[in-house]
Amino acid sequence: MQADFFDDDPQQPQVLQLAMADADVRYYPGWLTLTDADRYLHDCQKALTWSQDYIKIYGRDVKIPRLQSWMGEPEAQYTYSQLLMTPLPWQASVSEIRSLCETTTGASFNSVLANWYRDGQDSMGMHSDDEPELGPEPIIASVTLGEPRKFIFKHKKTQEKVEVVLDHGSLLVMQGETQRYWQHGINKTKKTIGDRINLTYRWVYPLTTGK
Fold first, then answer.
1. What sign does the CA torsion over 174, 176, 180, 182 have?
2. Exposed, middle or buried: residue 159 (CB in 10 Å: 0-12, 13-18, 19+)?
3. Three-state SS for 126?
4. How far apart are CA 145 and CA 159, in angstroms?
5. Element (H, E) at 178
6. Distance of CA 210 to the CA centre of its chain
7. CB 146 within 8 A of CB 123
8. Which of 91, 108, 114, 188 gives a 20 to 30 Å CA spacing to 197?
9. Side-chain-side CA neighbours of residue 48 (13 Å)
10. Which residues neighbour 46 within 8 Å (Cβ) at sequence distance 6 or greater?
11. What b-and-e string marks burial along 37-71, b requiring 16 or more CB atoms within 10 Å of the CB?
């Protein structure tokens, strides 16, 4: 089903209404001005170090269907699908956006995973950001730059699906127990669409701390 929101105040987040009371997802459309969103998109395309890595899926090495870049503090190493990611230094625009995210959410972020969806054939499989180094209830701040894409939530037990289109310059915040009970992803589309860069800020705990 399509996302159901409430709160008509444009200065307040739209809270995603999921059928189960085990998620906390807030959406800020128009979070960035169009001018700033366009500038940040161009900066990310030109200034970030992009790569297309392989991950393990059912024991096979599979090329990730998008480009990505991992930035953050030196200690913010992150592993998913058996891929160990060592952070690159912060790029100026990405660091600026981090500060804006921290102001909006009241949380701190020491790293960001940038994904570049070059066209409709680039995608993100259904998953949860529930790796041990993210802690038990991570706050994930997801900024969209470029082509709007349909973002899908799927409940792990009931299989309920909720969809929301993430617009250029928007912010989506997932927190609380969202990662424990829900997966999220972006499907391929046959439509001819432009590219989209997604910045997902998070706090990564050093693995040695056990958190």
1. negative
2. exposed
3. strand
4. 29
5. helix 178-181
6. 24
7. no
8. 108
9. 27
10. none
11. beebbebbeeebeeeeeeeeeeeeeeebebbbbbb
Dmax (CA) for the chain in angstroms is 48
Count of CB atoms within 10 A of residue 16's CB?
A: 22
The residue count of the chain comes to 211
Q: What is the pLDDT of residues 58-78, one digit of tens each?
A: 677 788 899 999 999 998 887
Q: What is the pLDDT of residues 147-201, one digit of tens each?
A: 999 999 999 999 999 999 999 999 999 999 999 999 999 999 999 999 999 999 9
Strand-pair partners of 51: 68
Distance CA 172, CA 31 (A): 9
29, 204, 129, 42 alpha-carbon torsion, rounded to 10°:
40
- Which residue's structure tokens are 């906390």? 24
**What token pair was written down for 45?**
């395309």
